[in-house]
Structure prediction request, 257 residues.
Amino acid sequence: MTTALPLFPLNSVLFPGLVLPLNIFEQRYRALMRDLLALPEGTPRQFGVVAIRDGREVAPTAVGLPESAEPADADPTAGFGPDPMASFYGIGCIADASTIREKTPGGGEEEDEEEDEAGYEVLATGTTRFRLLSVETGGPYLTAEVEELEEEPGEGAGALASGVLRAFRTYQKRLAGARERTLAAGQELPDDPSVVSYLVAAATVLDTPAKQRLLQAPDTASRLAEELRILRRESAVIGKLPSLPAAELTRRPTSPN
Prediction:
């Protein structure tokens, strides 16, 4: 089944079941949030999140202006080039915005509503993977035709999930030790193999291409098998390092948008 969705490209990967906080300030995404807020009560406020393969999450500033200048973001393709399909990975995740809160404008006595709008704070949750079929650039923000992807369990997903959870515990302990931090006690992990696969994919310190490969795995078992290899490899590497002083730099919990 195909459907049309507003598109929100990010320099990170969203997984089903994971929470996505966003700080919206660009004109194109403010327009998107206004349209989502205008939907009838009870209608899901959904948009598609895709990871950027080649491009910039935030629109560059206008030509000739300093980096501190207001981004020239009226063009929905700004930062992505004339063919956004070539700039994005082909598999993304639908996000459902549970909270869209308008921020208080900074002020201005006689500015129009759009100019005086400060932006939005958004809390969304990943729901379903999709395949990106086409991207439309004619509106105030990008929209896309997408095909939702069912999550297939694959062979041996349950046994693999148990192994991944054990390996993830070892990885957590070694990562905490390398950072000279204490691992939180009593943390419960899920039993459902698909939930395990997405939680571990999101929580493991990996770059965007590696996380994208996990998102687009053909089934849960394949994703878990790849995670098991990654966790064993990373745990072995971390065990040989005295510390990881810059590990946090690989994580971006919120978008600068």
